[in-house]
Amino acid sequence: MTELSLRALNRTLLVRQMLAERSPIGPLELVRHVVAVQGQEPNWPYVGLWSRLADFDHDELAALLRERKLVRSTMIRRTVHLATAQDFRWLRPTVRPIVHAALRAPYFRDEIDGIDHDELAAVGREILAGKTLSRSDFGKLLAERFPDRLPRRLAESVEMLVPMAHGPETGEWGRWRNRYVTMSLADEWIGDPMGTEPDPEQLILRYLAAYGPATVADMQAWAGVTRLAEVIDDMRDRLRVFTDDKHKVLFDVQDAPLADPDLPVPVRFLPAFDNALLGHKDRRRMISEEAVRAEAASLLGFVAPGEEGKVVVTDHSGARQP
Question: Both 26 and 142 in a single domain?
Fold first, then answer.
């Protein structure tokens, strides 16, 4: 098997993430290509798309949310992302286990202890049917049916159980810290029924096209799901196989480009938790191990090419991290 150096993996990722050269495609196509764009804070997707697209105006993204072509919701890694409406229909069922697992954490468990999850989900769907409500109002209505519980936690619990779509105003530029979240049932918002079965093969193929070559552990870390090795075993005849500098097996789709390790690349400005930074369990192709330990991936900073796939991250004070 061909061994790929860290620098080759770095340049390949930059090319596939459209960071080596800004792309002429539109924002909807960009979001579809990377599968889901980190959107925990409303401003982050705007920065990520601006760094990747040749001609981007922030109202283009806002318009896609208003037109319901994009969905803002909880999905991969149990965090808020943006995905195309059609992708969300299969993506949310595929990552359902990691989303539902949130309810076992003390943050949720202690507040909903003793409540039947199916009942909570059914009541939530009943209350939201045909409506768009703020998270606050939704929680208050749930508390009328489940008294002596924290309304906000009830609302957030239903979000883990039932696919939701946040209102377009929630994802507007400047809506920092999610101070006003509105929500609707995802199937009503999209206008098509949600998928009911996971589609791990599509998850793997779409991930590899934008983030590969990658290990099974990388795929699982990006999506937040497990047991993908079993799926990969059934797909091996459709995938290319490489190894990295530590002799770990990397998988890739057949037609995706591999970049020249010596490809010159520019400095790009990336938001916190950008896809390119959190797309792998082994982040060395983008960030040195020392920087990962220093939680450099959570900084909003400048990212520049470095030796053997390392980057330079500067925090708000301008301090350099390796």
Answer: yes
* 209 inside domain: no
The whole-angstrom separation of Cα 159 and Cα 136 is 13
Same domain, 83 and 173: yes
Spatial contact of 270 and 47, defined as CB atoms under 8 Å apart:
yes
pLDDT in tens, 32-62: 999 999 998 999 999 999 999 999 998 999 9
Number of domains observed in the structure of the chain: 2
Enumerate the β-bridge partners of residue 81: 38, 73
The predicted model scores a pTM of 0.88
**Any bridge partners for residue 252, and if so which?**
240
Provide the Cα torsion 181, 182, 185, 191; round to 10°: -120
* Torsion on CA atoms 226, 229, 234, 237, rounded to nearest 10: 130
Residue 301: domain span: 268-316
Last residue of a domain, one of 165, 190, 215: 190
Report the C-alpha gap between 108 and 104 in whole angstroms.
7
Rounded distance between C-alpha atoms, residue 59 and residue 56, angstroms: 9
Contact 98, 222 (CB under 8 A): no
The DSSP string of 184-209 is: EEHHHHHTSPPP-S--HHHHHHHHHH
Least Cα distance to 265 among 37, 12, 91 occurs for: 12
